[in-house]
What does this fold into?
Amino acid sequence: MSSRLLLPTVLVVAALTAGAGVLAREAYRRPLQAVGDQIALPTASSSVPRSAQPGPPTVQLSIDAALHPDGQRVREVLQRYFDAINDHDYEAWAKTVTADRVNRTPRIRWEADYESSRDGTIQVHRVETVTAGRLRVLMTFVSTQDVAKAPAELQADCIRWRVVYPLQEEAGSLRVDLGTEGSSSQFTAC
It folds into this structure.
C-alpha cells in the first residue's frame, strides 16, 4: 500500500471503530422493559413515607438481578417466601425454604417470631451463582413488627434490612436456605 493511501485508510478505520463503539454503548445503556412492576431501578426505601411502611409487598429486581439467568426464578421464590410471612402462613413458607431450614424452624417458634411481621419494599439488587444449584442473593427490604419481636440489637417497630440470602436447588425448585451468607445481615431503624 502506498504511503498516500495509508493516512486515509487509518482515518476510515478509526472512524468506523468509534462509530461501532458509540452504537455498542447505546445498546448496553438501554434499560430493560419492565414486566409489570417486577423490575425497578434502585431506590431508597426512604421514598416510602414512614406512615406507609413497610411499603409494597412486591419483590422487585434490579436490572442486574433481572439479567441473571435465574433472576425470574429468584423473584418468584422470594415473592412466595415474603407472601407467606406477610400472610403468617407457615405451610406456604415451608414450601419456599429447604428441608433443613424447615427442620430447624418448628411451626410454633416460626409463628411466634413472625406473628406481627409485615415485609415490603423488597428489592433484589444482585444474584450471584455460587455453585451449580446454589445462588447468593443480595437484597434489601423493610419490616414492621411489634418492638418486642424486633432483634435484641435493635428494638424498633420498623427496620430496613440489607441481607444476603442463600438459595439452593432442592426438589426441582429454588428454595431459601440457611448458610453463612445470611449471618452478615445489616439493619437500621426506619
User: Anything to note?
Assistant: Strands lie at 60-61, 118-131, 134-144, 158-170, 173-176, 186-189. Confidence is low (pLDDT under 50) at residues 22-36.
